[in-house]
Amino acid sequence: MTDQTKPLSTADESYVAFVEVAWQRHIRLAMLLTGDRWRAEELLQDSLVKVYERWRRLSRLDDLHAYLRRALVNNHTSSWRRRRRESLVADVPDRVAPAGDLGPDAVVVRRALMSLPAKQRAVVVLRHYEDLTEREVARVLGCSVGTVKSQNARALDKLRHLLDEPSYTLSR
Predict the structure, then answer these.
(1) Fewer CB within 10 A of the terminal residue: the chain, N end or C end?
(2) Is the confidence at residue 154, as pLDDT, over 50?
(3) 65-78 tens-digit pLDDT
(4) DSSP structure class, residue 125
């Protein structure tokens, strides 16, 4: 049997190099957005496919990672909107999210983060994990800086309340 694979074009080679860097850089962001390793990988793969479809035009951008970050957030928002319309259930299944490498309290923090509404979670993750400015978060989410500020304040208040609450432990 002969190998019938063609050599990669220069554009494809540059895309492969981008994916190798982007995967490591953005998988944790996707995990924080989704709360689940498998959904995070699917979200990142779907976003990278969309980037590939536009690669020849996008490869000229100054910050491809910013474009991918926005694609991740937009795809995640679209997916939870679709899922919300399609499959509301009465009882949420009990499932412990994998701890990953976020530290010893990662399960508690991740669960608290996942209790936030999706937009608040996106603001917190982009603002505090990705370390974007309020203006950059507003641009990624397509909203005003004031919305970012208010969503961030509400989210942090809720997280403080949840994480200070003695009954909010690993057993939930």
Answers:
(1) N
(2) yes
(3) 888 999 999 888 87
(4) I
Give the pTM.
0.56
DSSP 143: S
Quote the CA–CA distance of 139 and 41 in Å, as a whole number.
24
pLDDT in tens, 80-99: 555 554 455 566 555 544 44
Residue at token pair 């491809």: 64
- Widest CA span of the chain, in angstroms? 64
Q: What span, in angstroms and rounded, lies between the C-alpha atoms of 101 and 108?
A: 13
Phi, psi of 66 (to 5 degrees): -65, -40
Is the pLDDT higher at 57 or at 2? 57
Q: For residue 86, what are its two tokens?
A: 């399609």
CA angle, 63 then 76 then 83, to 5°: 165
CA distance 46 to 90: 29
CB 124 within 8 A of CB 152: yes
Amino acid (1-letter code) at residue 36:
D
* Interatomic CA distance for residues 166 and 172, integer angstroms: 12
Residue type, position 108, single letter? V
CA distance 51 to 15: 9
